[in-house]
Design goal:
Elements (H helix, E strand, L loop, with lengths): L4 E3 L6 E2 L9 E5 L2 E5 L5 E5 L4 E12 H4 L3 E2 L4 E2 L6 H9 L6 E4 L5 E6 L5 E6 L2 E11 L2
Antiparallel strand pairs: 1-2, 1-9, 3-6, 4-5, 6-12, 7-8, 9-10, 10-12, 11-12
Length: 139
């Protein structure tokens, strides 16, 4: 089994030292909206592209993976290092550009991070628990 990795052009990849906990959770959204008319007829229309949300749950993620080498005041990562916080703020950032997620089984997925925050908690000295939700468009 390989290591979970985030890859984007022009930056050092983020290779996690701990893989997500399995089994994971995947939720598929159709991209359509349904409802019912006053007469009781059901209708469905396409609102957007179908997509999948992939939840990566980490337990005991090391501090070096989480924010090691990241300076919060300047938002600069130490050269030749990479961290999740740097990836979220500077690599993915406000542009919400897709990147490649290489799962531990060798699959590659074009994804973006879903939502506007990362939710991690300090579980022990230098260890973090939390999840990253990735969004993968289908089609």
């Amino acid at each position: 089994m390989g290591q979970a990795t985030f890859i984007a052009s022009g930056v050092l990849p983020l290779v996690f030292s701990a893989n997500p906990v399995y089994p994971g959770k995947t939720t598929i959204y159709s991209g359509s909206v349904s409802g019912q008319t006053e007469g009781g007829d059901e209708y469905v229309y396409e609102k957007g592209v179908p997509y999948v949300l992939i939840e990566l749950r980490f337990e005991n993620l090391s501090a070096s993976d989480f924010d090691g080498g990241f300076n919060y005041s300047t938002k600069v990562q130490t050269p030749d290092t990479q961290s999740l916080v740097n990836w979220y703020i500077n690599v993915f950032g406000a542009a919400r550009q897709p990147f490649t997620y290489r799962d531990p089984f060798g699959g590659e997925h074009s994804v973006s991070i879903s939502g506007d925050r990362l939710d991690f908690a300090l579980s022990d000295y230098g260890l973090y628990n939390g999840q990253i939700v990735l969004k993968k468009k289908l089609g």
